[in-house]
Design goal:
43% of the residues lie in helices and 14% in strands. It is built from nine helices and seven strands; from the N terminus they run βαββαββαααββαααα. About 2% of the residues have low confidence.
Length: 280
Amino acid sequence: MNLMPGIAGGLVEKLSLQLHHDGGEIAVASTFAHVRMVTSPDEHEQFDGDFFGLFAEVQPIDVVLIRDAGRSTAEKSSVYKMRGYPNKKHSDCDLSTSDYDQFAKDSGAHVDREWFEGNLNVDQYLSFRVAIALTNDHDMDGNKNRGFYFDSEAGLWEILPWDVECSFRENPCSGEEPLALKVPRLFDVEYRNRYRFVWQVHFNEDRLFAMLDEWTPLIRELAEADVDRWAREPRLACPSCGDGPYSATPFRESSSWIKDSIRGRVRSAIREFKDPAVPW
């Protein structure tokens, strides 16, 4: 599970994963979980008690995820979770990463549309890139925070979203993945058309705000208690961030800045696609 002091991380992760799913990608499911850990009969105050707070419970990237998505080749196909290296999640215990290694090498060398059309699920990848662009989730450098799935029947690779808690923030977290610098440019018209479709159908304020407003009453009380727990935790003091304990964002402010970010992303899309030269 992923810890979410201040709750914003869990809300943006759940919302961002929903957008990836709406775009037709294989995306992990997520929900909220309240965790208590009773380790002693004498737990007398908030920092040593059994209340650990609100977490995001996220489905793992593995063969089960692929099978649940309705892919009949799940048991015969390679599934990887990137953790700085390709961590293979496969039921046949074959730990060789040679197929991914070859794909990474070849995709870095090729600059032609034909190669990518024959080795990458381009439609799925463009949906992945559109979701990244709309949510401003750029935290994939160093070979992390994504998964790979090789569909043995189609002979094509797909990228799976993972750890999207940096979504909707003004400043991207760390960096990009290698294909982002190449594939959208090679398929520029297709990318722009996909961007406009996802923006108009899925990424609008009425729809996304309704999701946030549906989720927030379910977790409001626990979220406020979570902030009270972590914002005063002396063991989370950060000398490089200034004096005092960890500073968690109040729940009301969290949902507010997420909505402000969505408004800004919608305005950016409107500005881009008012240009009549942009293809449809």
